[in-house]
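can u do me a favor
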């Protein structure tokens, strides 16, 4: 049974939340992303059922070279100081990884790392990651029991290895985040996960609601009603959990949180909600919308493709030929995604449109149109009820 939560966890999570909220207050998503995910390689020893990248065991010879990677970092730094996630595949399968992290840190980027739970994240490599500038490490834990997690990841022993690496990261002083992909295989066991999130001293639990792309299939998605049930459970959990909760690829959680907060205060007055890696207020000095595909978020593939996110794999250019800053700011794809007036269906007429916007990758994966209604949302806009 997991041990008691780290007593220092709450202050650390509070500091992380304060830093995030300060960044959000000054964010202009038309000019710069808040978060950049860089798929430095697609090589990975795993064969996960849901893999967005459809990762392979060998590195692609067309990956960005070390010199090209340095040039990319130079341009990303021109956005200011966004969060840069080194992801994959398994980023630790790149031999120059620590050099790239150190260079990005030197350029003022706030770096995090999402390795695969293999033999590679040793204590020595985790310490080296920290010394290079990694501020947070995130690993995937998809169930409270090895048999469910291992079957989903298709690697026997991966559950225990994940737990071991998370503890190692905690021991070397890295901020730890746990990622959990929500699909039919684990939707009913989420409450059992909480003690394990506490046990590894996680500052954040990031729940990724499945988007059908890569190996992930529509049939694996939970229903819109199940999404809503989990959102309400997460809101309740957020009041007592010693870690932050982030609903990833589930912008609808913002609407649920706002509605719940209003109901608790028994008021229709504007409310401020902090949670799920998101801050909402009706004031003039803070954003009224959160990060979404291409709207505060940018994805760079292992071969340099510039995309709105890993869940919306449509290329708007390539860093080998195009300026990534110009593409993010001016490419029609990105401009469409930041113009919520172009949203269709229920998303287009929803009164929560500007704070939510629906998950654009899921709309694309299910309907083929990234501007369509997010099918995982159960909410009926007020204008539809009149």
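np, heres the sequence
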């Amino acid at each position: 049974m997991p041990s008691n939560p780290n007593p220092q966890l709450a202050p650390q999570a509070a500091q992380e939340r304060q830093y995030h909220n300060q960044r959000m207050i000054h964010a202009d998503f038309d000019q710069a992303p808040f978060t950049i995910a860089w798929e430095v390689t697609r090589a990975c020893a795993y064969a996960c059922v849901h893999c967005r990248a459809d990762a392979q065991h060998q590195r692609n010879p067309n990956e960005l070279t070390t010199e090209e990677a340095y040039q990319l970092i130079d341009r990303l730094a021109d956005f200011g100081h966004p969060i840069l996630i080194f992801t994959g595949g398994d980023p630790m399968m790149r031999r120059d990884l620590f050099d790239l992290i150190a260079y990005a840190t030197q350029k003022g980027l706030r770096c995090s790392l999402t390795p695969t739970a293999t033999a590679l994240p040793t204590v020595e490599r985790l310490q080296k990651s920290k010394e290079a500038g990694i501020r947070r490490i995130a690993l995937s834990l998809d169930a409270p029991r090895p048999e469910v997690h291992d079957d989903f990841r298709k690697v026997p022993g991966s559950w225990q290895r994940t737990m071991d690496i998370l503890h190692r990261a905690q021991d070397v002083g890295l901020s730890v985040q746990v990622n959990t992909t929500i699909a039919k295989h684990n939707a009913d066991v989420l409450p059992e996960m909480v003690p394990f999130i506490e046990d590894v001293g996680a500052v954040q639990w990031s729940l990724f609601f499945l988007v059908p792309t890569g190996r992930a299939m529509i049939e694996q998605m939970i229903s819109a009603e199940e999404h809503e049930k989990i959102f309400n459970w997460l809101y309740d959990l957020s009041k007592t959990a010693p870690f932050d909760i982030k609903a990833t690829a589930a912008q609808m959680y913002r609407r649920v949180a706002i509605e719940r907060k209003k109901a608790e205060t028994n008021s229709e007055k504007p409310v401020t909600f902090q949670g799920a890696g998101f801050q909402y207020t009706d004031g003039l000095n803070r954003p009224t919308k959160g990060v979404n595909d291409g709207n505060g978020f940018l994805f760079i593939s292992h071969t340099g493709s510039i995309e709105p996110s890993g869940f919306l794999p449509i290329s708007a250019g390539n860093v080998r030929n195009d300026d990534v800053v110009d593409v993010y700011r001016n490419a029609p794809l990105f401009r469409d995604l930041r113009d919520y007036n172009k949203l269709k269906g229920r998303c287009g007429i929803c009164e929560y449109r500007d704070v939510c916007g629906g998950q654009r990758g899921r709309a694309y994966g299910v309907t083929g149109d990234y501007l369509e209604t997010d099918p995982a949302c159960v909410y009926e806009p007020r204008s539809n009820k009149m």
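Residues 9-25 form the longest helix (17 residues). hope that helps!!
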